[in-house]
Write a sequence for this structure.
C-alpha cells in the first residue's frame, strides 16, 4: 500500500512540475518561433537550443531547430535535428519533406542498398508509433484485457459473457503484437545508433588512427550508422555498405 | 530435251584457271587468273591455292562482268594475281575453290615451267629483265644498330643501309622489318636517298640510308630485329658477242639500260636487353628511360570554390616520350580532380627521339581555405649515369575563397524530380509546441509500469480468487440460501421497523410477511412456488427443533397472513408486538437451525 501512495505522490509531483516547466518552455518556444518568423534565424537557433540545453526535447522543437539551421545555411545541423525529430514524430509529412529537401543538397549521394519490399513494409509497420506511444498503448491494451476478463467473470447474461470474452481476446492479441513490436523496436534502437557528419569534409580511415589509410571521403550532413567506438574513434557504416573509422569529434550522434 | 540440256549446261558454274604465259623465266612477272562463270547465282568464299613458291606482286584483284546471251544471264568473276617466279623448275599450282549456291567447285590445276632465263626481251626496255644476276658483294643491305646491349626502355637506333657498287635504278621494299618486344618510332630521313662513299673491306661502296628507326625495348632478354627485304633494280653490263661500236654505244644507260632485279635481305640483329636495376626503384618511377626535365605551373593562385584551376606539368627530354605516364597527383580530398588532358609533341629528326609531354589537370576546390597542392614527382632512369633520377616540382599554395551558391555543383547528380524539389522552400515551422519531454529520461518508468501493470494484475487475481470462493459456495445452493436467509430477513425487518414508525401498517405487514416467508423458504429449502402453511409445518416436523419454536413460527406466519388481508383492524401496539415476535423467532430459529 505504501508503495502505491509513494508512486501516486511521485506522479502528482511530476505532473505539477512538468506543467510548470511546460508553461515556461512553451513561452521560450514561441519566442523562438517569433524570431524565426522575423528571419532572425541565428537568434531562433539560440532560443531553440536553450530549451535543449535545459534538458527538454520534443519532435516539434527539433523540427523547428532543423528549419532554423537550414535557413542559416548549416545543413549538417539541419539534418541532425530533423533526424532527432524523427524519433518523436516519425510519420510527420512536413518533416519527411524537409529532410528530403536537405538531403538532395548534400554533397554525398549515397545509394542505399535496395531492400526487399517486405522489409520496407515491416519497417513502416514498426515505426508507426514511437516507443513512447507504443508503451502507453501496451498499458492500455493490458488494462482493457484485464477489464474485459473481469467483466466476463461477473457477467450475468450469455450475451454479456460472449462480448466481453471477444473483446478480451482481441485486446490480448493486440497486446501481444504491441509487445513484439516494442521489443523489436527497442532492441533496434538500443543496438543501432546513427550519427551525422558535422565537419565539411571527413576522411574515413581504415583504422582508428590518424595515420591510417584514407579509405574514402564523406561530407557534411551525411547520416551514417555507428558500429563501434574505440579511443574516441567511431566505426561507421554508410548506407551503401562502406565501412571505416572517423574521429569522434567529426560526427554527432542523432 | 535438247533445250533442257542446254539450260542445264548454261546453269552449270565453272571455275577455270589460266596464266598469260607458260613457260616463264625466273624473276619474270606473269599473271595468274581464276575465272568463275555462273548464271545468276553469286559466288563466294574464294580460296586461293598455295602460291608460296612464287612471289605475289599483286592480287587477288577482282573483276566482274555480266553477259546476256539469248535472254540468259551469265556473269563471270575473275581473281587475278601478278606473280614472279623465284627459282627455275616445274611447279604445280593447285586447285582454287569457290562456293556457288552452296556447291563447292574446283579449278583445274596448272603446271608452270620456270626456265633459268627466257630469251624473250621486252620491247620497251631492251634488257634481259628478270635475268638472274650474281651480284656477289657488290650489292647488299645492312642493318646496323648503335648498340647491342641496352637497358629496357633505352633507345636503340637501327639504320638500314644499302651498299652498292652498281648503279641502282629503283628499289621497292617487299617486307618491312618486324620488331616484337619493341616500341618503334621511325626517324625522319630526307625524301631523296643521299649516297655517300664508304670503304668497307677494301672496297669502295656507295652507301644510302634507306630507313632509320628508334627502338625502345619493352621487355628484357634477347630480342631480335627481323630482316627487311627489298627488291633492287640495278643496271648491269651485259657481255655482247659482238664488239659492235653501235652496240657499245647503245649500251649507254641513256639509251635504254639493261637492268636486273636483285632481291636483298638484311641480316637479323640480336639485341641484349638488360632489365632495369631493381633497387632502389623510386616510388614515382613509371617506366621512363632517357633524360628528362620536369616543370609545373598553375594558372591561378586565388580561386573561388567550385571554380576550376588548371595545373600543368611538362616533361621534356629524350627517351621514350610516348609511353610517359602522368605523374601521380595526390590532391587534398577537398579538391575534385579530373583525369589529365595529355598533349605530346615528338621530334623525330636527328638520331634520337626527343619531345615534350604535357599533362593538364582540371582541379576544382570544393571548400574555402588556404589549400596546398602537393609537389609532383617524376622519376626516370638516366641511361648515361645508370641510375634513377627523381624530379620534383614546387608545392603550390592556393587561396580558395567562398564562391557563390553551392547548388550548381550538386545539380549534376539530381533527377528531374529532385531539381523540381530544389526550387521549393522547406515547410514552415511547427507553431504548436507539442509536449516536451525530459531529455535522456528513461523511457521505461518503473513507477508507471507498476501502476499500469502489476497493480491491476494483482487486483484481477484477487478478484479471481474471490470469485472462485464465491463460486464454490454457490455450488451448494441450499447452504448458500440458508446462509443468506438471515441477512435478507434482517434487512427486511429493519425496513419493517421503519415502516412501523412511519405508521404505514399495510406496507409493514407486507414486509414482515415477506421477511418471514422468505426466511422460512430459504432456511427450509422450500421452493417459493410451494410455500404454504401445510408445507412449512411438514418441513418443520423433520427438523430437530423445539415444538415451542415450531408453534411460534406457524402462529406468526398465520397472523401475518391474517393481518395482511385486514390491515386496519390492528393497533400500533399489536404491530410492535408482531415485530418483536418476528425478530425473536428469527434469532431463535437461527440458533436452533444452524447445525
Amino acid at each position: 500500500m505504501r508503495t502505491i501512495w509513494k508512486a501516486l505522490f511521485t506522479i502528482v509531483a511530476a505532473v505539477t512540475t512538468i506543467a510548470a516547466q511546460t508553461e515556461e518552455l512553451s513561452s521560450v518556444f514561441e519566442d523562438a518561433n517569433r524570431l524565426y518568423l522575423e528571419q532572425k534565424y541565428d537568434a531562433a537557433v539560440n532560443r531553440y537550443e536553450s530549451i535543449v540545453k535545459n534538458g527538454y526535447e520534443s519532435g516539434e522543437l527539433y523540427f523547428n531547430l532543423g528549419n532554423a539551421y537550414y535557413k542559416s545555411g548549416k545543413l549538417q545541423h539541419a539534418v541532425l535535428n530533423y533526424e532527432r525529430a524523427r524519433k518523436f514524430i516519425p510519420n510527420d509529412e512536413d518533416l519527411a519533406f524537409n529532410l528530403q529537401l536537405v538531403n538532395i543538397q548534400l554533397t554525398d549521394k549515397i545509394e542505399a542498398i535496395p531492400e526487399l519490399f517486405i522489409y520496407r513494409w515491416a519497417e513502416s509497420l514498426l515505426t508507426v508509433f514511437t516507443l513512447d506511444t507504443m508503451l502507453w498503448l501496451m498499458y492500455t491494451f493490458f488494462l482493457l484485457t484485464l477489464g474485459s476478463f473481469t467483466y466476463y467473470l461477473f457477467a450475468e447474461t450469455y450475451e454479456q459473457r460472449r462480448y466481453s470474452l471477444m473483446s478480451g481476446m482481441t485486446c490480448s492479441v493486440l497486446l501481444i503484437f504491441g509487445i513484439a513490436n516494442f521489443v523489436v523496436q527497442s532492441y533496434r534502437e538500443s543496438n543501432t545508433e546513427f550519427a551525422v557528419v558535422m565537419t565539411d569534409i571527413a576522411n574515413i580511415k581504415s583504422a582508428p588512427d590518424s595515420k591510417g589509410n584514407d579509405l574514402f571521403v564523406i561530407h557534411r550532413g551525411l547520416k551514417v550508422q555507428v558500429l563501434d567506438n574505440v579511443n574516441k574513434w567511431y566505426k561507421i557504416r554508410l548506407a551503401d555498405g562502406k565501412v571505416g573509422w572517423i574521429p569522434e569529434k567529426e560526427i554527432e550522434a542523432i | 530435251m535438247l533445250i533442257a540440256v542446254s539450260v542445264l549446261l548454261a546453269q552449270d558454274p565453272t571455275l577455270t584457271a589460266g596464266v598469260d604465259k607458260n613457260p616463264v623465266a625466273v624473276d619474270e612477272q606473269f599473271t595468274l587468273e581464276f575465272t568463275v562463270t555462273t548464271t545468276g547465282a553469286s559466288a563466294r568464299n574464294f580460296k586461293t591455292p598455295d602460291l608460296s613458291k612464287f612471289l605475289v606482286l599483286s592480287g587477288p584483284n577482282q573483276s566482274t562482268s555480266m553477259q546476256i546471251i539469248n535472254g540468259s544471264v551469265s556473269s563471270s568473276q575473275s581473281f587475278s594475281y601478278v606473280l614472279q617466279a623465284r627459282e627455275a623448275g616445274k611447279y604445280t599450282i593447285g586447285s582454287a575453290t569457290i562456293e556457288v549456291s552452296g556447291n563447292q567447285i574446283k579449278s583445274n590445276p596448272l603446271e608452270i615451267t620456270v626456265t633459268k632465263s627466257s630469251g624473250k626481251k621486252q620491247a620497251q626496255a631492251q634488257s634481259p629483265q628478270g635475268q638472274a644476276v650474281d651480284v656477289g658483294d657488290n650489292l647488299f643491305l645492312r642493318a646496323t644498330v648503335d648498340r647491342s646491349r641496352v637497358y629496357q626502355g633505352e633507345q636503340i637506333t637501327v639504320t638500314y643501309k644499302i651498299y652498292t657498287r652498281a648503279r641502282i635504278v629503283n628499289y621497292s621494299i617487299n617486307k618491312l622489318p618486324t620488331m616484337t618486344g619493341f616500341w618503334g618510332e621511325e626517324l625522319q630521313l630526307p625524301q631523296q636517298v643521299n649516297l655517300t662513299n664508304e670503304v668497307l673491306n677494301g672496297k669502295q661502296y656507295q652507301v644510302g640510308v634507306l630507313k632509320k628507326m628508334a627502338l625502345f625495348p619493352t621487355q628484357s632478354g634477347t630480342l631480335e630485329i627481323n630482316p627487311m627485304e627489298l627488291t633492287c633494280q640495278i643496271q648491269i653490263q651485259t657481255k655482247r658477242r659482238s664488239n659492235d661500236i653501235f652496240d657499245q654505244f647503245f649500251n649507254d644507260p641513256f639509251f635504254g639500260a639493261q637492268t636486273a632485279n636483285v632481291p636483298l635481305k638484311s641480316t637479323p640483329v640480336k639485341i641484349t636487353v638488360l632489365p632495369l636495376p631493381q633497387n632502389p626503384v623510386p616510388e614515382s618511377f613509371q617506366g621512363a628511360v632517357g633524360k628528362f626535365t620536369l616543370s609545373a605551373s598553375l594558372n591561378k593562385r586565388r580561386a573561388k570554390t567550385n571554380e576550376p584551376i588548371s595545373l600543368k606539368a611538362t616533361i621534356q627530354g629524350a627517351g621514350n616520350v610516348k609511353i610517359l605516364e602522368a605523374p601521380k597527383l595526390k590532391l587534398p580530398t577537398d579538391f575534385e580532380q579530373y583525369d589529365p588532358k595529355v598533349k605530346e609533341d615528338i621530334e623525330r629528326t636527328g638520331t634520337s627521339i626527343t619531345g615534350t609531354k604535357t599533362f593538364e589537370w582540371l582541379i576544382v576546390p570544393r571548400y574555402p581555405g588556404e589549400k596546398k597542392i602537393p609537389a609532383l614527382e617524376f622519376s626516370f632512369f638516366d641511361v648515361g649515369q645508370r641510375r634513377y633520377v627523381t624530379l620534383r616540382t614546387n608545392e603550390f599554395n592556393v587561396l580558395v575563397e567562398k564562391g557563390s551558391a553551392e547548388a550548381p555543383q550538386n545539380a549534376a547528380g539530381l533527377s528531374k524530380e529532385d531539381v523540381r524539389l530544389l526550387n521549393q522552400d522547406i515547410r514552415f515551422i511547427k507553431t504548436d509546441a507539442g509536449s516536451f519531454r525530459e531529455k535522456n529520461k528513461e523511457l521505461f518508468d518503473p513507477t508507471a509500469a507498476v501502476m499500469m501493470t502489476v497493480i491491476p494484475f494483482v487486483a484481477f487475481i484477487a478478484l479471481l480468487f474471490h470469485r472462485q470462493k464465491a463460486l464454490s459456495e454457490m455450488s451448494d445452493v441450499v447452504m448458500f440460501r440458508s446462509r443468506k436467509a438471515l441477512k435478507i430477513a434482517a434487512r427486511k425487518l429493519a425496513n419493517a421497523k421503519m415502516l412501523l414508525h412511519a405508521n404505514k401498517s399495510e406496507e409493514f405487514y407486507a414486509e414482515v410477511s415477506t421477511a418471514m416467508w422468505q426466511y422460512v423458504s430459504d432456511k427450509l429449502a422450500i421452493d417459493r412456488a410451494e410455500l404454504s402453511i401445510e408445507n412449512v409445518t411438514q418441513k418443520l416436523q423433520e427438523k430437530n427443533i423445539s415444538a415451542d419454536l415450531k408453534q411460534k413460527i406457524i402462529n406468526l406466519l398465520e397472523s401475518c397472513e391474517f393481518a395482511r388481508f385486514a390491515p386496519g383492524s390492528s393497533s400500533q401496539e399489536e404491530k410492535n408486538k408482531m415485530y418483536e415476535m418476528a425478530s425473536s423467532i428469527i434469532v431463535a430459529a437461527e440458533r436452533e437451525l444452524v447445525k
Remarks:
- Chain B touches chain A through 44 residues (CB under 8 Å).
- Chain B has ten helices and 32 strands.
